[in-house]
Design a protein that fits this description.
The chain is α/β, with parallel strands linked by helices. Helices cover 45% and strands 18% of the residues. A seven-stranded parallel beta sheet has the order 3-2-1-4-5-6-7, sandwiched between helices. Strands 10-9-8-11-12-13 form a six-stranded parallel beta sheet, sandwiched between helices. It is elongated.
Length: 365
C-alpha cells in the first residue's frame, strides 16, 4: 500500500501546547506508512525542531489576514504536494487551510480543536458550521472540548471525535543540575516547599487567582515559581516585586528544570482545553493542584494524583496548596500515582495510533 501523505497546517510554530502536540504527532507517525509535512502561517522555534527531526517544514510568514499573496502560496504548496490528508489546527490555520485545500484539489480535510473558546467570537463557530461539509472529521483533544464545541456549533455529535493528547513519560526525567541552579540562585533552602506555575500568562490561566492565593498563604517556607510569558506579564512582574518568596522565570523552553525544582504544579485555569502541563508534571512525579475546569477534570484524579478546586476561588486554591505543602508523604503518594496514571492513560503512543487509524480509515473510505 502506498504511503499516506499528511500535511499539518498551524497558525504559529511557537513552543505552545497545540504546536508541541503536533510536533510529537508529526515526528512519531510511522514513516513506512506516512509521509508528513508541516506548514506554519507564521514561524517560531518549533519550525527548527521539526526540521531537525527530518520533517519537511514551510513557513509562510503571514503578517495579517490581508496577506493574500502568502495564502496563495499555501495553495501552491498543497497543489505541488497533493497530500491525501490536510490536517488543520487552530482557527486561523483552518480559516486559511480549508479553502486552500479546496482550491488546490488536495485530499481529505481533518481539523483539530485544541481550545475551549470562551470569548464572544460567534464567527468562529459560524465558520465551523459553514465549512463542515468539506471536513471529514473534527478531532477534539478532550471530552470537555467536544461538549463545548458541539454546543457552540450544533454540528452532529458523531462528526466530533475525541483523541486525547499524550506525552512520552520516559522523556520527562528530572533535571537535577538545572533544578539546583534555580533554587540556589533564589536562595531556596532544601527544606523549603516550591509550588510552580508553568504556562501562558493569560487571564484564562488564572495567574491572578494564584497571586491572590499566595497572599492568603503568606510567607513561611513556601515559594512560588512562575514560568511563562504573555499579556499578563506586567501584572506578574508587579506581583513578584511585592512578594519576597515569588519569582518570575520568564519563558522557559525546557520546563523540566523548573518541575524538578518544584514540589507541586499549580494550574488555576479558568478554562483549559486539555492541560498538557499537568501530564508533564505528573510524569515527573509531581502532584497537581488544578481548577476543576475543562480538560483538567479528565487528567487530574482528585485525591489520587492531585487536588481539584473550584475555578476563581483563591481561598480553596490556597487551602489545597497548603494541604500538599504540609504533608510530604501525601505528595509522594500522589507523585507515584500520577506517573502510573500518565503511562497507562495518556501515553503518546496511544495518541499517535489513534491518528494513524483515523487517517487510514479516511483514505480507505
Amino acid at each position: 500500500m502506498a504511503r499516506i501523505s499528511v500535511c499539518h497546517i498551524l497558525t504559529d510554530l511557537v513552543p505552545a501546547g497545540a504546536e508541541r502536540s503536533v510536533y510529537e504527532l508529526a515526528t512519531r507517525l510511522d514513516r513506512t506508512r506516512f509521509d508528513v509535512s508541516v506548514v506554519g502561517l507564521r514561524g517560531g522555534a518549533m519550525a527548527d525542531r521539526l526540521a531537525e527531526a527530518g520533517i519537511d517544514v514551510e513557513v509562510l510568514g503571514v503578517r495579517s489576514k490581508a496577506d493574500v499573496a502568502k495564502l496563495a502560496h499555501l495553495v501552491g504548496i498543497l497543489r505541488d504536494r497533493r497530500p491525501d490528508i490536510v490536517h488543520t489546527h487552530l482557527f486561523h490555520a483552518d480559516l486559511a487551510g480549508r479553502p486552500a485545500a479546496s482550491l488546490a484539489g488536495a485530499g481529505h480535510l481533518v481539523h483539530t480543536v485544541h481550545a475551549i473558546e470562551q470569548r464572544f467570537r460567534p464567527w468562529q463557530f459560524a465558520w465551523a458550521r459553514l465549512a463542515s461539509r468539506r471536513c471529514r472529521c473534527t478531532i477534539c483533544i478532550s471530552g470537555a472540548v467536544r461538549r463545548h464545541y458541539w454546543r457552540r456549533t450544533g454540528l452532529p455529535r458523531q462528526s466530533l471525535r475525541v483523541i486525547r493528547n499524550g506525552i512520552d513519560p520516559d522523556a520527562w526525567q528530572p533535571k537535577t543540575d538545572l533544578a539546583q541552579r534555580i533554587r540556589e540562585q533564589r536562595g531556596i533552602a532544601g527544606s523549603d516547599i516550591v509550588a510552580a506555575f508553568v504556562g501562558r500568562l493569560h487571564v484564562d490561566k488564572g495567574v491572578d487567582v494564584l497571586a491572590a492565593a499566595a497572599q492568603i498563604l503568606g510567607d513561611g517556607s513556601l515559594w512560588l515559581l512562575i514560568a511563562g510569558d504573555g499579556p499578563m506579564r506586567p501584572f506578574v512582574r508587579q506581583f513578584v516585586r511585592g512578594d519576597a518568596r515569588a519569582d518570575w522565570l520568564g519563558q522557559i523552553d525546557d520546563v523540566r528544570g523548573v518541575l524538578t525544582a518544584a514540589d507541586m504544579l499549580v494550574m488555576p485555569s479558568r478554562t483549559e482545553g486539555f492541560g498538557l502541563a499537568a501530564l508533564e508534571a505528573m510524569a515527573m512525579g509531581l502532584p497537581v493542584v488544578a481548577a476543576r475546569a475543562g480538560g483538567l477534570k479528565e487528567i487530574v484524579v482528585d485525591g489520587e494524583t492531585g487536588l481539584l478546586v473550584p475555578p476563581d476561588d483563591p481561598a480553596s486554591l490556597a487551602g489545597a496548596i497548603r494541604r500538599l505543602a504540609d504533608d510530604a508523604d501525601f505528595r509522594r503518594r500522589m507523585g507515584r500515582a500520577g506517573r502510573e496514571h500518565v503511562a497507562e492513560q495518556f501515553h503518546i503512543n496511544a495518541t499517535v495510533a489513534a491518528h494513524e487509524r483515523l487517517y487510514a480509515e479516511i483514505v480507505r473510505e
